[in-house]
Amino acid sequence: MTVEKTSIDTLVVGAGQAGVAMSEHLSKLGVPHLVLERDRIAERWRTGRWDSLVANGPAWHDRFPNLEFDGLEPDAFASKDQVADYFVAYAEKFEAPIRTGVEVKEVVRNAGRQGFTIETSEGTIEASRVVVATGPFQRPVIPPIAPEAPNLTQIHSAEYRNPEHLPEGAVLVVGAGSSGVQIADELQRAGREVYLSVGPHDRPPRAYRGRDFCWWLGVLGEWDAEVMRPGKEHVTIAVSGARGGHTVDFRRLAHQGITLVGLTKSFNGGVVTFQSDLAINIARGDENYLSLLNAADTYVARNGLDLPEDHEARIIPADPECVLNPVLELDLTKAGVTSIIWATGYAVDFSWLKIDAFDEKGKPKHQRGVSKEPGIYFLGLPWLSRRGSAFIWGVWHDARHIADHIVTQRKYLSYRDASQRHATDGREERAASAPVDSCLHKVSEMGVN
Ligand SMILES: Cc1cc2nc3c(=O)[nH]c(=O)nc-3n(C[C@H](O)[C@H](O)[C@H](O)COP(=O)(O)OP(=O)(O)OC[C@H]3O[C@@H](n4cnc5c(N)ncnc54)[C@H](O)[C@@H]3O)c2cc1C
């Protein structure tokens, strides 16, 4: 397959949800564009996650505005494959010009003229603009404390698939955000002995007074928060749509049989040490949980809503033994631990973008996705414009803003002063009398692959 267009107004890199949303808005506004995806549409949902994963938000919420999930109840949680299928169907709906199986290898700004030259696995193209929609979670990160131990299976949560996929034995799951907590729960239910290393976290109730937390974050304006609250930079969020959706409650997980431990500090000679912060992390998680209930109650009272009271939601189970007397050291061999799953997050990789759009730490410099390098846009990054930016519903709105910006820029750049307009008129007259063949150019139309 070759990239048929040798030049395009706007190139979108990546056809996950961000690339699909971008393409929809550009299509609506009549901006000629092409989306290049190295794998398949929504590949990360298809193959980059564990088998049993479902969306963290219900189907009515975790979707784009213009299409519902086929055959799913609005309050159900779509499986990862249903999410991937959804984006394929979405792209087909408006015939998004997506080329799959084409990797963008390098983007360089043109010297002394407008636009960018893009090296792809299928050849070179030029674009006036490039939208980087390569995802918020590109490169799995395992912290440098990970031990060198050939007898231990160590994988990142991005590589975990199911309990059978791990060798027999106990498992240490490091990180208790939505991924770590769901994987630990699944492993324990499959009969594994599980240690779960819990750091600072938020844990909103799955539902309160009959409404999902996604609804509460929406009406309380939390999804729209433009900046992370100070001190929350290293706080993960623990939510789960698994088994119909439930509140993540670490005490319940401990009563169920998981051994909770504090933040993983270091490994030394087969012994892992944990920080003594478990109780405080759990207590802060409770504070976050209760603060949402309080905010929800205030909202109900102020707006006179008829939502049923939910006293049970305020019952916090007793502290389990592992919180009262936390394990601070664990000999992995004696504990029978044969695997470690690092649910420790992801980083981005923009090494292929050879442009001046990053700060000294390598982070993109941008305003709501509009880069400091004119013509470059970032989409889908956490907190791009607000808390919802990396999530399904949020990226669609950010894409609309970027599409508007592109249209405005195109308008400026297409402006011609009077002398240029006269010169163009003359050329157009000559072109109108030229043979048809001479007007043909290399661009050919493409459909969805
Ligand atoms: C475990 C997990 C569960 C999540 N659950 C939810 C949820 O329930 N609800 C929710 O709203 N969000 C959820 N998210 C967050 C977010 O919705 C997903 O991460 C989503 O995949 C982000 O979409 P994206 O399009 O921005 O990026 P991606 O899905 O990562 O898509 C980027 C695409 O770019 C392609 N690409 C990358 N580099 C290149 C290149 N150089 N050339 C060509 N193509 C390239 C990749 O192949 C990929 O297909 C979850 C995230 C994770 C990790």
TrEMBL record:
GO molecular function annotations of the record: flavin adenine dinucleotide binding; monooxygenase activity
Gene3D superfamilies with a match to the protein in the record: FAD/NAD(P)-binding domain
Presence of the UniProt keyword Oxidoreductase in the record: yes
InterPro entries: Auxin_biosynth/cation_transpt, FAD/NAD-bd_sf
Keywords noted in UniProt: Oxidoreductase
Cited Pfam families: Pyr_redox_3 (PF13738)
Protein name: FAD-dependent oxidoreductase
